[in-house]
Amino acid sequence: MLNLHPAQIESLSLHRVGNKSRNESLFLSEEPYHIDDELHSLLKEYFLKPFREKEENYFQFIHEVDLEFHELYELIKAIFNNPLSAHENSLKIARRLYEQSQHPHIKSGEVYVVYFDNVLVDNQRTDALGIFKSELKNDFLQFEEKGSNLKMLLKQGVNLNKLDKGALIFNVNKEEGYKVLSIDSNRYDTKYWLEDFLGVDVLADENFNTKSYLKFCQNFAKDVVLPAEDKQQEVLFMNRAVNHFAKNDEFEESKFLNEVIDNPDLIPEFKHYKAERAPKYKIEDLTQFPVSNTAVSAARKKIKNTINLDTNIQIKLDFVNPESAERFIEKGWDPEREMYYYLVYFNKEDKK
C-alpha cells in the first residue's frame, strides 16, 4: 500500500535537458530551487498525483553484472545516504539523462530532481527521490491593462495538471535495486525513459504476479475456453479464477487447476497454453506465490461478466455469487427458429 499524502518536499533541483542529437544544450542550475508554501503545494500535487491515480506496478534497478555498476542506482543511493548531497548528485542525474537524449523524437524539457520525506510504502515510513520531466508546453493567455483597454498576451508554459515523465524511487529494498514507480504520458519514447535512462525492470512482487497470472487466465479464457465451449463458460471460468484468488492468501497452481477448470480436458490445454505464452506475462516458473488482494480487486473491476447477444440483449452474470449463473442459466438450440437460446430460472423479479 502506498500513501503519498503526508509526503513533503525537502529539496528540489531544477535543470533543463535538451536533445543531444539536435545539438540542444544542457542547462544546470548552480543551486537548489527554493520554493515557498504556495508553490510547494502546487508542485507536490503536480509531481505526485499521477502516482496516486495509477496501479502500483513497481520496477527495480537492474544491471547485467552488478548494481554497483549501475550509474543512476549509485547516484540515488548516495542521495539517500546523505540528503544534503541531493543537488550535487542531481547535476550528474541531469547529465545522464542528457547523454541518453539521442533519439530525434526525444523532446527537450525541464528536469526536476526532488527529495521527499515522510512517504508511506507498505505501512513503512521512508523517504523517496523523484525524477520528473516536463516536455510539452501549452498555450495560455495573460491579460494586461493598457490605457483604457485590456490586452491579451499569448504565452507558453507547463500544464500542472499533466506530468509528462516521472519516476519515484523509494528508500526500501536497497540491496535488490529499490522499489521504483514510473509514469510516461508520452508513449513515443518509452524505451528511452525506462530502459536507457532509468535502467529498470519489472519487480516481480505479489502484486505483479497476481495481476500477471490473472491477465494470463483472461487470455486463456478468450483464446481456449470460448472456442472450445461458449461465452457463458468463458465468463464462468474467469469468475471462478478471480474468486479462487480472492479466497486464498497463497496461490498454488495444482489446487487452482482442480478447483477452477470444470472440464478436465482443458487442464492439458491450460498447461500447453502456459508453456507457449508464459514469457509474455513473466510467469514461466510461477506455480506458487502470495496473493495480492489489491491486484485481485483491480482485476475484478476490469474483467467483463456480461454476455452480449446479437439480438441486442445482455445477460450479466454475478461475480459475487457465481453458482447462480451455473444453476439457473441453461443454453440450448431451438431447431424451429434455428437460434440458440438462454433459459433463465427465477422466483420473482427484483423491483429495484
Detailed description of the structure:
This protein is an alpha+beta fold and 352 residues long. The chain has two domains: 2-135 and 164-203, no CATH class; 207-344, no CATH class. Helices cover 38% and strands 28% of the residues. Strands 1, 2, 3, 5, 6, 9 and 10 form a seven-stranded antiparallel beta sheet that branches. Strands 4-11 form a two-stranded antiparallel ribbon. It has a two-stranded antiparallel ribbon with strand order 7-8. Helix 2 runs antiparallel to helix 3, helix 5 (206-228) runs antiparallel to helix 6 (231-247) and helix 5 crosses helix 8.
Annotation field: number of helices: 10
The largest β sheet comes out as: 7 strands, antiparallel
Poorly predicted tracts of residues: none
Number of domains: 2
Characterize the overall form: globular
Give the quaternary arrangement of the chains.
Answer: single chain
**Structural classification:** alpha+beta
Can you give me a brief rundown of this structure?
By secondary structure, this protein is α+β, with helices and mostly antiparallel strands.
